């Protein structure tokens, strides 16, 4: 697995969940993720943020999902 | 999933890999993980360290495994 692949997976899965809910990055960051800054959140979706395990658990709990869902293959190949 | 479960999974999977190789925490930290402090590594195994995605990718690459292996159910139920 390429370096940065975990970050890309988390970002792509958050984007997938956001699109399923049909909301903008700004609204998803502000409302669903309860006050995350829009610009910071955009970096997460692009796989540019080196998130910690606690941050991932926190976002998953705010979204009501299992944190492991953020590590699955976003194209659903697995 | 309980808060801290990701940290516990990574720790338990590292412990499982270490035991498969039959080495102590000190040797695993120093040699396999190339210079990690033994005490810090002990905390990782206990699920007490809030690792970042880059750290997890780094340890996986030093161990020659897929980083996702560190998130699987350590008891192999999945």
UniProtKB/TrEMBL annotation, chains A, B:
- Its transmembrane ranges are none
The source's superkingdom equals Bacteria
Q: Name all HTH cro/C1-type domain ranges.
A: 14-70
Q: Name one GO molecular function term.
A: DNA binding
Give the matching Pfam families.
Answer: HTH_3
Record's InterPro entries?
Cro/C1-type_HTH, Lambda_DNA-bd_dom_sf
Among Gene3D superfamilies, the record links this protein to: lambda repressor-like DNA-binding domains (1.10.260.40)
What's the protein name? Helix-turn-helix transcriptional regulator
Q: Which organism is it from?
A: Nesterenkonia salmonea
